[in-house]
TrEMBL record:
Lineage, opening ranks: Bacteria, Pseudomonadati, Planctomycetota, Planctomycetia, Pirellulales
Coiled-coil blocks: 600-663
Domain (MoxR) ranges: 19-190, 322-490
Highest rank taxon of the organism: Bacteria
Keywords of this entry: Coiled coil
Protein name stated in the entry: ATPase RavA
Keyword Transferase: no
Pfam families (alphabetical): bpMoxR
Amino acid sequence: MVANEWAWLPTPRKEILPTIQAALRERFVFCDVIADLLSAACYEPCNVLLWGPGGHGKSEMALTALRALGLQDEEIFIQSFGEGMSEDRLWGGPDMASLDTCVRYDTTRSFLAPQYKVVIFEELFDAPAQALLPLKDVLTRRAFMNGNERVEMAAKVVIACTNKDPREFAEGSDAVQALLERFLLQKEVRWPGYEAKHYRELFAKVHRNSSMGGKQLQTMLSKVIAGLNEAKTFIMSPRMAIQSLEVVSNEAKIHGDNTVTAEAFRSIRFVQGMQSYTADLSRRIERQLPNEPIHIRLTDADFSHHDDGPLKTPRGEVPARISQSLKSRFIHCDEIVQVLTHAFFQPCNVLLWGPGGHGKSDMVMTALQELGYLENEIFLQSFGEGMTEDRLWGGPNIAKLDLCLEYDTDRSFLPYEVVILEEILDASSQALLPLKDVLTRRVFMNGNRPVPMRSQAIVACTNKDPRQFAKDSDAVKALLERFPLQLEVRWPSYDQADYEALFHKTNPDAGPDRRKLNRIYAHVIANLNDDRESGFQVSPRIALGGLRLAANSVGRHGRKKMIVDDILTIRNIQGMESYQRDVESLIRSALREGGVEVLLSDIDERAHQLQGKMQDINRKFAAAKDLDDEARGDVNDEAISDMVDLMSSMDALKHELQNLQVSDPMLVKWKKRSELAVDQVAAEIEAGR
């Protein structure tokens, strides 16, 4: 090796190993082997592959080591690979200035740019062979043919990181096998054990100046985490453990007394990855705690932040504001209040998922507006199958399009403090991968210009189960790790009382008649839930929409009381299409149990309608007298047919009324009035016949 290659780092060669060791030991546990490996890669430059389960800080250790050696961030290139990786992205995208003459790439935006000394490739083996094969060639020849121009690769070291076992991938892919051979050094990054003492050592490095109370908390939390681990199914990663310490300690400050109690430990259920546990998580946590009451006093040294947060509202006011704003409008929102309080208190990103119609985005908007944000200060964007990088970063900067491909990032989420991303899991890998990069590094390279991400809290909402998507997509799995807090949003029950509570929150000043309507409608909806296959529930949005439509139906038709037809308007609400065939019988059955007054109103209305039909039939007979014999016969036949239908309807109405069971004295009187009215109409029909 020539002498000038030894001087590519600011740090002398003999100091590389001790420098990296010292830097990693400050922040990480079980890092000496990694320090030795990274020092070997930098000592006599060669490529290195770090692989192993997510959350163990592979990229963070690499960056920490490189910065300790004196490299600046602008000398380190970081890029995520994955299912959506393409040659275009790998080589920097098309060179717009030469696009009208030939296909060339803007390599100044790629890892080939001359300022980069080290390259970090994340999730390398998720990329398709179309990207891996040309990368292998360039790593071999250390040059890229950009059209007729030879672009030399200036970077001395390439560090690849992946959550996957490369041995498994190499067996089925020649492209992966060939690429693996270009990484001389390879190491699995995993703790040799996940015992309480290991987590305690990690916590001690994260909070070096902890008080005695802080150390007591770290010891207790370490035991809880180790007790939750299951060797074959779930191991809490270091990243998850650090976030668990964050939320437990923050819980003490959220309550205002800086005291950790047993309840604070349950907040780790919000940490990303804990969704793999079932409903017994709280009980499992309690089993790891001591039997005596817990009162651990913390000091300012135990927190990673000060009282004045980066958001508009001071931290001390966040819990009360979020609680008041949500509990005044929504039911079953206690856990939403807690997770959003943690997210905006810390602040950090949070993922809300669960069935549609439960107001996830609405609750977030309500909380943010209560925290002082105007609507135009909250960035809201919907993802989906059509989501592209162009849309994600604000669209191309048209003014520069003939020179280079830059984005108008002022139109993206990057300048906003708070962000809501809806249906994030519907997007393609091409959009999720660069988003994951920016959420990690908090900066977006817009061409050659770094654009900092100002977003302090990003709330992602989706109707889909992230656990299922993480199994099928590595891009989704990598992105989910950038949302430290996660919560499934659904009601614990969907009974009549739940819907009545919802209707009361929506209209707390409702009068007696409206409250009666709310009760009856809530009873009907709860019965619809019971008659459906497992997993279907009438969502709050459907319930409110149906109630509003039913109430409007009464007014639109000029009635004073609700009848069955008004409630049947729920069939037209989104999500109720599968009820089209049997919904009327289900609703009538429900009303016999909890809405007899609607059935009585319905009978009164139908009796009045039958009386009107009798009058129409009489008018037909009268009009037929002035017609010729043939025409008179046709009209009389039609009138007789209508009369037969009318008599059948009247018999059904009388039968329905007879079978209606009532016990309330007021309803008994109502039923008697209805019986008299029906008998009177029946007598008129009999006389008309």
